[in-house]
Amino acid sequence: MDHAALLWELIEQRTRRDADRVAIDQQIWDRFGDERAIMFTDLAGFARQVARCGIIHFLQVIFEQKRLFLPIVESHGGRLLKTEADSFMILFETAIGALTCALEMQRACQSVNVGREDEEHVVLCVGIGHGRLLKIGDDDVFGHEVNLASKLGEDIARPNEILVTQSARKVIGDIPGVTWEPVTGQFAGETECWRAAYTLANDR
User: Fold this and answer.
1) Is the predicted pLDDT of residue 38 greater than 80, yes or no?
2) Topology of the domain comprising 33-203
3) Is-contact 150 125, C-beta < 8 A?
4) How many CB atoms lie within 10 A of CB 71?
5) Beta-bridge partner residues of 193
């Protein structure tokens, strides 16, 4: 039985009236539980670009961001789990690995955008979480930090921003070239996240 099938079989057992949910939950966490960092990326203004430039432009941007970002992701030990339109879901062993990857991705965007028309720019938004999650083989993850990182990367982060959860901020600590700015609000059940303020190459 594959990983996903086993998970959903256990979930089905959990729905039964006489189910021992505590025991089933423990079995699920024992089988699938892990502690990892998770990143969600989104391209700023992507929907407007597609509406203005058409579906072929959409496909070009998807192709270009994979070509630009995936070698960086791999060099930092990340694994691309899912692609949904212009968004990536990427798993990392550590939150520091995720953050350093995000910084390099942002700087790669700056470099590739030089000399391009505005509609050709690749402008990245990033959300990073870290904590206990359910890892289903090499295909999917579930957990509060997954939901929160998705919210930060796809809905909250502005162009060029890297937002991290409180849990991720705690384990990352302080690193050279990055200062931390608190961001308050309502983020998937949390009331605070952190913005990584970094220096782009042309600002040095």
Assistant:
1) yes
2) Alpha-Beta Plaits (3.30.70)
3) no
4) 12
5) 165, 183
